């Protein structure tokens, strides 16, 4: 379909959660000198202008990154993420939001590599333009799920695979499980971070059940809800499912998630949880 454009949603509460988790995983991988691969299956455009007609139409960033950006008591866990946001807003004003590839590009070291995939005909050239001078990055136009077969395992045998499709097709909920299963067969020691939206809770339950049936161990779930579950249209929550999470991630997210929930949802609706789908 390819109708989804992240520019309408850039910097919303789901992005804040996703990119907090992403940046903490990257920082953990950097604790060892050995290089690693960052593979992004649905990379998007890379950079989003918050004054664009799309972003202004929804205003979702106002209840997301804008609320975090103006806080003076930022938890230490948010430092890597916010440093990447500041890197694209050098004037000090919040004008741009970095997508996951730009956050990775900011945080990765010279010895690390980025494999970025985007299928959308409008977003792909924007993404390619962002990384045309970055020798660490390979930008491909294509189906991100295919990259889980084609690009794994990395030579370094270390890496983070970020999977965040638009879920504009119901089959995406099954395809993410198939993709993870394929990738895991090739690269069982990698860290896999799967983003998901909660629109209908039953879809998420089915996806989680399918993940359990793969037999993969060490699957953690991190979820932030801004409203109670509903059968009405619209995303009420989002989450990250992390396979092989770094050992510090559970403690880090347990510490920072209450602050994020209070900042993003001052009314106190919804919930913020860290739990294990499948333990060790």
Automatic annotation (TrEMBL):
Sequence intervals crossing the membrane: none
Enzyme class: transferase
Biological processes, Gene Ontology terms: rRNA base methylation
Gene3D superfamilies, sorted: Vaccinia Virus protein VP39 (3.40.50.150)
GO MF entry, a single one: RNA binding
Residues at the active site: 164
One cellular-component annotation, GO: cytosol
Interaction with substrate rRNA, annotated site positions: 4
Residues reported in the UniProt entry to bind S-adenosyl-L-methionine: 19, 42, 100, 118, 143-144, 164
Pfam families noted in UniProt: RsmJ (PF04378)
Entry-linked InterPro entries: RlmJ, SAM-dependent_MTases_sf
Tagged with keyword Cell inner membrane: no
Family per similarity comment: Belongs to the RlmJ family.
Role summary: Specifically methylates the adenine in position 2030 of 23S rRNA.
Listed name of the protein: Ribosomal RNA large subunit methyltransferase J
Gene this chain is encoded by: rlmJ
């Amino acid at each position: 379909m390819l109708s989804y454009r992240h520019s309408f949603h850039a910097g919303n509460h789901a992005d804040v959660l996703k990119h907090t988790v992403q940046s903490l995983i990257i920082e953990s991988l950097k604790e060892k000198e050995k290089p690693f691969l960052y593979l992004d299956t649905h990379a998007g455009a890379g950079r989003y202008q918050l004054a664009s007609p799309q972003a202004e139409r929804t205003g979702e960033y106002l209840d997301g990154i804008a609320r975090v950006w103006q806080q003076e008591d930022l938890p230490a866990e948010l430092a890597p993420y916010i440093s990447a946001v500041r890197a694209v807003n050098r004037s000090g004003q919040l004008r741009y939001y970095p997508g996951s590839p730009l956050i990775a590009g900011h945080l990765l070291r010279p010895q690390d590599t980025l494999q970025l995939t985007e299928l959308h005909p409008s977003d792909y050239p924007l993404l390619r333009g962002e990384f045309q001078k970055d020798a660490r990055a390979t930008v491909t136009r294509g189906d991100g799920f295919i990259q889980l077969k084609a690009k794994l395992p990395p030579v370094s045998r270390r890496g983070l695979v970020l999977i965040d499709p638009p879920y504009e097709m119901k089959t995406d909920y099954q395809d993410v499980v198939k993709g993870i299963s394929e990738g895991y067969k090739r690269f069982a020691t990698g860290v896999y971070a799967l983003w998901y939206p909660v629109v209908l809770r039953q879809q998420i339950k089915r996806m989680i059940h399918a993940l359990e049936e793969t037999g993969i161990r060490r699957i953690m779930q991190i979820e932030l809800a801004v409203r109670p579950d509903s059968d009405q249209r619209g995303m009420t929550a989002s989450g990250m499912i992390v396979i092989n999470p770094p050992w510090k991630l559970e403690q880090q997210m347990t510490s920072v998630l209450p602050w994020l929930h209070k900042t993003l949802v001052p009314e106190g609706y919804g919930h913020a949880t860290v739990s294990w789908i499948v333990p060790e």
